[in-house]
Amino acid sequence: xxxxxxxxxxxxxxxxxxxxxxxxxxxxxxxxxxxxxxxxxxxxxxxxxxxxxxxxxxxxxxxxxxxxxxxxxxxxxxxxxxxxxxxxxxxxxxxxxxxxxxxxxxxxxxxxxxxxxxxxxxxxxxxxxxxxxxxxxxxxxxxxxxxxxxxxxxxxxxxxxxxxxxxxxxxxxxxxxxxxxxxxxxxxxxxxxxxxxxxxxxxxxxxxx
Length: 209
Prior knowledge:
Blueprint: H1 10-35, E1 39-49, H2 51-62, E2 66-76, E3 80-87, H3 88-99, H4 108-134, E4 139-141, E5 145-150, H5 151-154, E6 164-175, E7 178-189, H6 190-204
Antiparallel strand pairs: 1-6, 2-3, 2-4, 2-5, 3-7, 6-7
């Protein structure tokens, strides 16, 4: 089956958003327990975009050149990459709130990688775990990696074939009256995305594309 954007129905987007919301809800509960901070995570919208449209969306949304990201590769029933992405300033604020370090402290960078990697790992595993559990699919995960770079490099397609599908879930983090924006980007190989949509059709009773 060859996937095209035109064949994706609104019901599939709604299903994907629901699966992601289940995952971030579980992740928020775990973060609350681990970090002792009241964290609310919301996913107001989910879009399926081309690579060029995704780049434009992130640059317009954040108006930044550099981003901080936690990336986790997954294989199994479907393969690809999951990314939790923040503008670097938002990443620093998030770490400051969670650790108590002053945002201007020279020591902040030394704890940023570990803190964001832990947060990203929990959020991404929550999302991918929700998708795999609800759809009865098996996934294997690599260790998360942290990087700060341009959005082009953050979303690089290393180890993913050039024909890929990009799922953008806009995220809102509310922590101690501070609201931070970040994004979750799931990158699926084309045939893997077909497997995902077929699983949604089967488990949720949607029409076959």
